[in-house]
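Q: Give me the 3D complex with iron/sulfur cluster.
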Amino acid sequence: MTRRQCTGEYKIKPIKQKVRELLGFPYPARIPKGVFVEQWVGISTDEFHRAKDADVKYMRNRHPLLDMSWSRVDCVRYLTSLGLADTPKSSCLGCPFHGNAQWRHIRDNSPSEWADVVEFDAAIRQGNARANASGSRLLGEAFLHRSRVPLSQAPIDHVTAAERAALRISAGEADVLENGVEDGCSPWACRGDANALTQGDFGLAT
Ligand code: SF4
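A: Here is the predicted complex, encoded as structure tokens.
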């Protein structure tokens, strides 16, 4: 696992930028005391430990699902009542925490998105261009799939016994390989933070 910039760079920064704009104090203007937005973050009771205060005074987090004591099951039940039972976990298309099932879903249901992630995977092989240019060169190569094989050839149809043995992983970890990390991802509760398979077992960069 390399340093992960996805949530900070692509979610939190743009959100703060937009919030400042909405408040009428674009960066680097000073935001007066007492001026803030209220931001609703959908964290359910199963993951209450992910609920956090905002790290700036001009944003205040509220957690309506916690206020209502709704669990993930309550959310699914509600979505089902609206005809939205197949709502997937939230995550980026090219998330390195996807399991094989999620990669297959993209490949089999959305060829254009699959082409996009395959291209993205190839593009990150040498790491972050800006970091490389500034002297923080990536040692080795980066891959989206945990097998460290280009996504277009990665063993996403099943976790092979050889792969399991090579990685020396347990059955529980094999489940993560198949199904990805359990959590969805939001700017304020990144799925990567709770992942069990991040200890340098796999090569990736986002
Ligand atoms: S879904 Fe994955 S790629 Fe997207 S921000 Fe979360 S951890 Fe990063």
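A quick observation: DSSP finds eight helices and two strands in the chain.
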